[in-house]
Amino acid sequence: MTNNRSIHGASSDLIDAFTETVRRYPERPAVVHHGDTLTYRQLGELVRTLAHRLGTGPGVVAVPATHTPDTVVALLGILAAGGAYCPVDPAFPPQRRQDMLAAVGCRTAVGPGIAQPGVRVVELPGTTTGTPAGAQDAPERTGPEQPAYLLFTSGSTGQPKPVVTPRRAISATVDSLRTLFGLTAEDRVLQFASLNWDTCFEEILPTLTGGAALVLDRDAHSGSFPRFLRMVERERIGVLDLPTAFWHELVLHLAEEGLALPECVRLLVIGGEAANPARLADWAALDTGRIRLLNTYGSTETTLITHAVDLHGPLAAARDRPWAAGDRVPIGRALPHVYERISEQGELLIGGPAVALGYLGLPEATADRFTEDAEGVRWYRTGDRVGRAPDGVLTHQGRLDGEFKVRGIRVDPAEVEAHLAGHPGVHAVAVTGTTLAGRSALVAYVVPRAGAAAGTLGADLRTYLRDRVPGHLVPSRITVVPELVLTASGKVDRAGSHRLHSARGAGAGRGTGEGAGAQLPEPEPAHH
Amino acid sequence: MSSVDTTPADTDGLVTIFRRVLETDDVAADSDFFLLGGDSLIATRVLSAVARNYGVELSFEDFVLAPTPAGLVELIAAAR
Fold this sequence. Notes:
CATH architecture of the domain at 404-502 in chain A: 2-Layer Sandwich
Strand order of the largest sheet of chain A: 11-12-13-14-15
Radius of gyration of chain A: 23 Å
Distance between the termini of chain B: 9 Å
Largest sheet of chain A: 5 strands, mixed
Number of domains of chain B: 1
Helix content of chain A: 25-40%
Largest sheet of chain B: none
CATH superfamily of the domain at 404-502 in chain A: ANL, C-terminal domain
CATH architecture of chain B: Orthogonal Bundle
CATH class of the domain at 404-502 in chain A: Alpha Beta
Helix content of chain B: 55-70%
CATH superfamily of chain B: ACP-like
Strand content of chain A: 15-25%
Order of helices and strands of chain B: HHHH
Distance between the termini of chain A: 33 Å
Radius of gyration of chain B: 11 Å
Number of strands of chain B: 0
Shape of chain A: globular
Oligomer: heterodimer
Structural class of chain A: alpha/beta
Shape of chain B: globular
Number of strands of chain A: 26
């Protein structure tokens, strides 16, 4: 590339780092997919070809994101053209996908699957065909404050709330993560996370700017742990990045079978919600001493990971006693590119290059969470209450609002309530988070409208939501109740309604000592 | 895998696994795991229990097509 432009602040642009990696390691494997390998040279050519097809500054580009090399090419090609990547999950209900595209004013899409009036579809260069046409330079890119990607967080109105992340944020974060993970060109990194959320960038971007190999394999998503573990061994995976909730299940499986992870694994990154100290104790009791177990914390608005700490393994601080239930597992220390501040209320604020531009088209919501101090530094209020341990690591102490995590994805209960309230059979509704069957889950309490068929309302509402919202917004339990608990000011008391009705819910969630029905669990830390 | 175990899968056994994983007694032979509040995450517990008890490795995709105790019994029998 001839437009290798100035270094922006501490970090050069992500695509410059990728181009440099292609130059250094042209024949090394970049992407491995069921045994098929794209070298860095081949990947670089595909990315350049796609960038040319998109043209300079294509704006927001939608991608039907799947676990394929095509989606990786699309992500990098869009960034190389100066556009903003916007994944649209093909599994989402059509109405949700339309709302998402409309919310971001998307007029360009890559690959098949997004056929809508007014949206130009750009074909991906084939990953199996010969050398793509043209070895020209990439188009002129835009500056560090231009959007790199748009992702949707849960919004209280029921409409998707797009977070806009600029290039300097992802560039600075990826630099920090390469160092944090200790990545080398010898590493093989599993691509596990959905390509429709930002966690996948933790896997893809440090890997492909570090000369390592990104491995995609369907056995990662089969739901069968024996198959998963055989794949890790077969593909010689050195680095795994798993949602904490999935890691909990993996540890249960390993502990029951008396197994360890294959020898090839050197680093296991977890994040998304609070790590369960009981699972941590189980993990430590297995033959896992050589594996770095790295806990991570961050929000979509502060770009992937802002805090991390080794919990177990060669780089973890020694502990004077084993982990036990009730311990608070730390969320870590700020990474080098992250400024942190703790407010008088104990809320964690994040500043510096990692902070997103805000919520697209929502100036009030943006002003509510993003502020600028006297020195011109932008800060994001995370909504997480934290404390600082004597050794400087942060621990999570709860949320300042009603948000919580479902399978690692942040959910605003008001969004689910807004959708449920749209059903003609619903008079009033309260949604909250709790622990069901040992994992975080959504529960809904619904008061039927007079004359509604209360007997089938719960099942009707489940179908109604399935047609409208992503799976993580569908409550695990929908209970029809005669009334909700109100606060003194007359608002619905979510926690109070849950306390009143959970004891006579649908029969699920009791008898395990998890505390369901008695009290709400500690809210989970935010991550993505 | 069938060398590990040849216990025949029966509906009662699968109902017991569903009850344990979903933490509810409200499970019958034709109960849909996902309508009882199950999701892809805790589905892995059912798949692990099936692999352990019956020596058959099913995938999440298999499970989605037959998300009931009776449906899984048929899948397990077919996989052997």
